[in-house]
Amino acid sequence: GINAEYGGIRAQLEAAKGAIPFLGGDGEQERILEFWQIWSESIPAQKDPDVYATIVATPAMNQLSWRVFGPQHALIQEMVDFFWNVGAPETEIDRLNSIGSIINPLIIGSWIDMSTKGGMDGGWVFPVDVAIADALQACDEGSPLASLRDWTSRNHISTCITVGRDMGASPPRQTEIRFNLPGATFEEQWSHAMSAYSEFTFPLPSSELASIIQNWKPLGLVMSVITSSEGFVRIGLLMPKPEKTVMTRLCEASGHNPDTLVNFQNKLAISRPEFVEFQHLMDSFGYGVYNEGFNLAFHYQLCSQ
Fold first, then answer.
1. 277, HSE (Cβ side, Cα atoms, 13 Å)
2. Among 105, 135, 148, 170, CA closest to 234
3. Could you say which residues of the chain have pLDDT below 70?
4. What is the pLDDT of residue 44?
5. How far is it, in rounded angstroms, from Cα 236 to Cα 158?
6. Number of separate helices (H) and strands (E) present in the chain
7. Residue 6: what pLDDT?
8. For the CA atoms of 276, 240, 177, 61, what is the dihedral angle to 10 degrees?
9. pTM for the whole thing?
10. C-alpha closest to that of 142 among 200, 181, 192, 92
11. Residues 72/106, Cβ–Cβ less than 8 Å
12. DSSP string, 71-97
């Protein structure tokens, strides 16, 4: 985490925002900064060791996802107020309450996404172990849900580790499920991941990127699947704690310079990402503001001090 004397997670997020080039306030990002501000005010300002945050960034830091997590009692009221403030539909606030009462998570969170092209989205997330059957109730009906239900059942995946949903004003709304990939070895976990790509009709990662991972052989692979009523939206393959050499190779293999991320890490005194993620966003789900196709993303954790 970051060693900031002043403590609370809101201050850590403020420091992180200051280390991100495109949020440096050149005037163009006024709406995004305002959105970020409203979101950050829904986060407790005081120190709380149980509140933490994650920032997910592309190598160019032109697409960012911010997530804050904490005990339900500490976050729930301000989180619901945040959704009202940004115009989330009442039906979605009801949906949040009903999924919340099924799962009754001790830890909850909210997230916002943004991009240099003007993307702004937000939603809720429960970063807790949940029976897949319960988590899938957060998904909208449609063939992706049926396919995800079928594939997880055939692969004996009965629990997910995160469920979240967007609170956008207009459908189709997106639901994310994350689960640990089964298998005792890297090879088994990787093979389950590739089976999910094929089953859900996503293009596989390039052979160059795949070979970097196959040489690295990380264990503890996590899969993220985002569905909507209109199709699969995004798949993500998360691999824990990449060393700097792996990070550099992946950035270069996907045509990026790692320096922007390294500068960000150095400014925040973060030793390394929690995860590197291969993301693939389906065509037509970028809405002109998020990069469709393959994206590399790095997850950083911020903790209260």
1. 25
2. 148
3. 1-7, 25-28, 304-305
4. 87
5. 19
6. 10, 12
7. 52
8. -20
9. 0.95
10. 200
11. yes
12. EHHHHHHHHHHHHHHTT--HHHHHHHH
